[in-house]
Amino acid sequence: MVELPFVPARVAMLPKDSRGYPVPWFVAWIDDVPDFRVIAAGKVADAFNKNLCWICGQPKGIYHSFVIGPMCAVTRTNSEPPSHLDCAKFAAKACPFLTKPRMKRNEKDLPEDHIKAAGNPISRNPGCACVWVTKTYSPFQVSNGVLFKMGDPEAAYWYAEGRTATREEVQASITSGLPLLYEDAKKEGPSAVRELERCIKRLEPYLPQ
Fold it and tell me: 83, 65 in Cβ contact below 8 A?
């Protein structure tokens, strides 16, 4: 069985897959097998409308914790709703994709009716993950679905390989990902580039010290 970091009580109540990983609430079960790549129908709307944790499915309080990559921290947008803080930290430390920088997304044999994440998702493995804690967030419509705008952070926790990340690791991940954001911004024009640069500078105080 897989070795996991400390498992919060709410996560421990979730069903397990054949490896021993807790299966997050949002995951779709296909032929009685969880497919971690697929979000079950209606989960995004239920999580937002009922203030439920994206990972354990139980009600949240006033704090909302997003598990995101550095580029989402720059733009303050995410395609998935938030979680409890302890659930989010567990995901950042236990998820195989987030804890293994060389792992690539497996898109083989996805269901035919699989719906891709909204917006223009970046498929690369960022090597670092951030748990972005905020009191406010709001949905907004894009051409292919709904994204969430995250409010100012109350705290930002950074992880790499299942442990606390260094500033150098986070900065390296940001530097390697920024060309992708600049590419999109340049298509929109100079004002979009200036806004991106403002967002990059705005993130700096929340990087690891």
Answer: yes
